[in-house]
Amino acid sequence: METRPVVTCFLRSEGEVLLLRRSDAVGSYRGQWSGVAGHVADDAGRDRDPETAARAEVDEETGLADAVTLVRQGDSFQVADTDHGVRWQVHPFLFDCEARTAETNEESTETAWVHPPEILTRETVPRLWTSWDRIRPRVAAVREDRTHGSAWLSLRALEVLRDEAALADAGRSDDLETAERDGDDWEALAALAAEIREARPSMVVIANRLDRAMAAVTDESPAAVERAATEALNHAVTADRVAAAVAAEHVGDRIATLSRSGTVRAVAAAAAPEAVLVAESRPGGEGVGVAETLAESTAVTLTTDAAFGHELDAWSTDTLVVGADRVLPDGCVVNKVGTRSAALSAAAADVDCYAVCATDKITPRAAWDREERDAQEVYAGAADIAVSNPTFDITPASAVTVVTERGVLETDEIGGIADAHRDRSEWTERR
After folding, report:
1. What is the DSSP string of 83-148?
2. CB 75 within 8 A of CB 43
3. Counted domains in the chain
4. Per the domain annotation, does 266 fall within a domain?
5. Would residue 2 count as lying in a domain?
6. CB 343 within 8 A of CB 400
7. What are 284-298's pLDDT values in tens digits?
């Protein structure tokens, strides 16, 4: 039996993936649902590496090649097709996609953005779930990721819970990450949710969003957990989007920012400022990448952290816009180190400072653990010198205005939301 290498690509947006229904123009699996798929060899029979083939198929079948970012390539696997006399060597890929309007070719009759568990119930090409299973988020990915922000990771955390619950409900124990856990399905899924909460204990938004899902479960069944996780994920996507849209209505034409925040990037996209000032954001230098991205659509000035406060004034800044790692119940904002000095400099220059985030970033409790980065980022010499290299700092509530999907929040409103988060966290006591 001949072996033919093929790619299966999932484009992910807002927690959903794009499926395409295969037309009569294709040679196999007509009328069945698939991801973006195609042969590794090109039309002339020339070999390509799988990633090159994957990107080419995304372009040909959806027109979204410029909107995708590779997340991961999964391990390949084989599917024997006796009807067609071929053994498919499937190479799975996952791409994040910034757009949702696909321009299909003759190989597809319709498209659908769906939560991946729908793969388990639709008529799909053989082993489409296996392709998703090879690249879907896992607890380890949430724990080990050092590239993305907490809001992005919170969506992945909910995806882990959603998919595991769907597998338990479908009786697919062989695929379960919870397979070796003791107890019934509810206990296994509750243990998984608790594990994800602890994977990144400093990221309060992950715990709050998992708590929102688990607190909504009443009948303690896998189906109920899947529904709650899906609803929490949809709520999170909407909250992040609306928070950015609300903030965009408040900012001016010349904005400044620091570090890396997907929400701030969304604010800039919605507000379309005439110019943006960006601090380089040492020691990680996240601001450099932000500046490069924003430069595709507006005039950008990149400056040093040391000069940022002065430039806020000299550059005629209208608004300082920052993200938030977390907002404390008293309205103080914990964010990338440098935020405090930038906010205080903005106040001195009579520049508005907005911290933009979803209300899920409000922490239920006032406690906050200081985090230190590697001391050698600051000093690697031999002298006996104490090094302080904090990851975050705290900006007083008096120096920053918190903007969320609910609008601009007063301090008492922030405290009330913190209380609601604390109440939802009590689901852990039911375990």
Report:
1. TTTEEEEEEEEEEEES-------TTEEEEEEE-GGGGGTS-BSTTHHHHHHHHS--HHHHHH--SS
2. no
3. 2
4. yes
5. yes
6. yes
7. 899 999 999 999 999
